[in-house]
Amino acid sequence: MDFYNEQRRILQEKKSVTPEIKAKDNLSYKNSRISWTTALIRDTEKNVKHSIDTKNIVQSVYRPFFKQYLYFSRILNERVYQMPQLFPVPELENLMICVSGLGGNKDNTAIITDCIPDLNCLDAGTQCFPLYWYEKPQGQQLDLFSSNNNSEHIRRDGLSDFIFKRAKKQYGKSVTKEDIFYYVYGILHSPEYRTAFANDLKKMLPRLPLLDNVKDFWAFSKAGRALADLHINYETVPPYHGVTVTGADSGFFRVEKMRFPKKDGIVRGKKKKVNDTSTIHLNSKITLSDIPEKAYQYVVNGKSAVEWIMERYQVKTDKKSGITNDPNNWAEEVGNPRYILDVLLSVINVSVQTVDIVDGLPPVDFLSIYD
Fold it and tell me: Which of 149, 258, 271, 294 has the highest count of CB atoms within 10 angstroms of its CB?
């Protein structure tokens, strides 16, 4: 921000001598200092001073099962889309089902989140479907019967009354909009659904039916709710009971880059060293072993959840900006030096439980529904 204001002042000094000069041709483009957006360049032209507001620092989901702080502001974020209506202030809760965008190379997947997701959290630009959305009242006064009597925002339902009435008619008056929301999350994890519409899901957003069978509806809804609880609260899920951890008593939890050891294997009929995924070296002291193969069957955005943890929780320096992302800093901020070890153990359990829940979903012939 200091660099922006410095560039703004320099530009205005130049314009006082040569008014016709353009900002884009007279700014410094040091990647180590700033990443210019169209809006910021325009603000230098208008001589708009900006400053940091710490209230804009919020948690976000950058990649599956990887949180990162975000400075959420129209000033520095080039495209915020509808996010200000979905997460207007940190105190207002929301849930969003996120699916892969259109035209991606990977199989369409879904993940649920309770905070702002990065646009590229999922393949080809994440598409989000919220449980709620918020708006500020315009010229109207909230009364004693308003659900948000103590807030300047009014909460609206993300699910339409039309589908709500249809669901109640089919499944009974006890159905809530949350039940339908979790039903959607359950359907999106159905192997039959994903297989039947694999090609369509790369070209269009998911189209979901209301199943005729009442038991199937509740089975998907309850499964979706259980999956959502796992995927949102993954950090607090206990470790998978079968995994063995050695070296944790060393007290050395710093992670540079997690690795699989190598073992002898056969690739395309030839002997070759391959990754031993039953074991992960967290660092030079700590090793996890006896990791079940099932843990790698839960794939989101083209990679297992376990491998997302391994990829994102490593020390890495961006070549252009020179900024070093060190996940160990996050462990310090949350006050748990073994955070990375704990979250890896938790996600192994999350993955195994996810596979078990998905395997227990009722089989449905989705293609016959649309015939």
Answer: 258
